[in-house]
């Protein structure tokens, strides 16, 4: 019976992660607007030609054009947890951004939940992870979603912002080499990979490799980064997070590093909660305003 259960589980994972054959891929809105904040399902491009990434779009009332905010979600190396991941929403953060005039896209990347497909962000073995490659793969997925939304009539073509959480934040750091006229600024919450190694708090897979990759991203960074971590984050504790930020800055990146008060029992997920967004509120507002675009002139 145990062998049967294992085989059934492997079959399920194969189905969830397989690329569809000869699939007809359609991008754009995939349903009607709902509540809150004109919540709407979308499909956006992914690195797999036959797979559209599932996404949620929130936006203010009116026709726009709105500034675009893309939220890059956290991840896990555990294949079963990724397959079972619900569509990320970051609703408190989305509400904060919509209230400030942003259209907010939350794309679900390849290898996660309903999007499925290959997990292109795989960092590899815990002893010898390739964190730089993993971050660049995440950055590519963020950029594909952002570039597609920027083509929509209700989105401004300039000054999009990217907010990343955990592995999504790590990808956002890799994206800091983009054109500052297209993306400005980048905000990250506890960025990193390899935290909770073997599900143990305050243990990181090959932390030296993570520091080296942060420096690699810093060498080519062109966009300023605001870096947040909660004081009770057990994935990337404030002291280690500061070391990562220092490595990024020391190689040439521009970073404003801030430690926030403890949020809940585990601060790593703070930005997914009302309390976390409230704790970050003033500093997050400052980060968003550091590069305000000029008002669009009416023809």
Structure description:
It is a single chain. With about 300 residues, the protein is α/β, with parallel strands linked by helices. It has a single domain, classed as Rossmann fold (3-Layer(aba) Sandwich). It is built from eight helices and nine strands. A nine-stranded mixed β-sheet has the order 1-2-3-5-4-6-7-8-9, with helices on both faces. Strand 8, helix 7 and strand 9 form a beta-alpha-beta unit. Residues about 1-20 and about 295-299 have low confidence and may be disordered.
Structurally, the number of domains stands at 1
Number of strands: 9
CATH domain class: Alpha Beta
Largest sheet, described in full? 9 strands, mixed
Helix and strand topology:
Blueprint: H1 2-17, E1 28-29, E2 40-45, E3 52-58, E4 67-72, H2 79-83, H3 91-98, E5 102-107, H4 131-150, E6 160-165, H5 167-174, E7 183-189, H6 207-220, E8 225-230, H7 238-250, E9 255-260, H8 274-288
Helix pairs in contact: 4-5, 6-7
Please supply descriptive tags for the structure shown above.
8 helices, disordered C terminus, disordered N terminus, nine-stranded mixed β-sheet, 299 residues
Structure in a nutshell:
With 299 residues, the chain is of the alpha/beta class. The chain contains eight helices and nine strands.
């Amino acid at each position: 019976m145990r062998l049967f259960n294992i085989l059934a589980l492997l079959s399920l994972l194969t189905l969830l992660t397989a690329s569809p054959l000869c699939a007809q891929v359609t991008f754009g809105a995939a349903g009607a607007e709902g509540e809150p904040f004109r919540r709407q399902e979308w499909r956006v491009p992914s690195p797999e030609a036959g797979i559209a990434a599932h996404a949620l779009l929130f936006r203010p009332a009116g026709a726009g054009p709105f500034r675009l905010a893309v939220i890059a979600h956290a991840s896990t190396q555990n294949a079963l947890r990724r397959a079972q991941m619900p569509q990320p929403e970051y609703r408190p953060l989305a509400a904060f951004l919509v209230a400030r005039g942003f259209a907010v896209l939350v794309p679900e990347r390849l290898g996660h939940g309903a999007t499925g497909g290959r997990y292109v962000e795989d960092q590899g073995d815990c002893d010898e992870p390739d964190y730089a490659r993993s971050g660049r793969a995440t950055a590519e997925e963020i950029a594909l979603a952002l570039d597609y939304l920027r083509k929509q009539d209700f989105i401004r073509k300039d000054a999009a912002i990217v907010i990343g959480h955990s592995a999504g934040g790590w990808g956002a750091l890799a994206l800091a080499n983009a054109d500052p006229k297209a993306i400005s600024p980048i905000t990250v919450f506890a960025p990193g990979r390899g935290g909770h190694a073997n599900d143990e708090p305050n243990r990181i897979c090959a932390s030296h490799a993570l520091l080296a990759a942060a420096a690699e991203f810093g060498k080519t960074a062109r966009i300023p980064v605001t870096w947040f971590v909660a004081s009770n984050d057990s994935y990337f504790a404030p002291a280690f997070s500061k070391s990562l930020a220092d490595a990024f800055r020391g190689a040439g990146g521009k970073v404003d590093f801030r430690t926030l008060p403890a949020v809940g029992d585990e601060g790593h997920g703070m930005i997914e909660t009302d309390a976390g967004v409230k704790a970050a509120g003033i500093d997050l507002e400052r980060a968003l305003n550091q590069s305000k675009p000029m008002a669009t002139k009416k023809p």
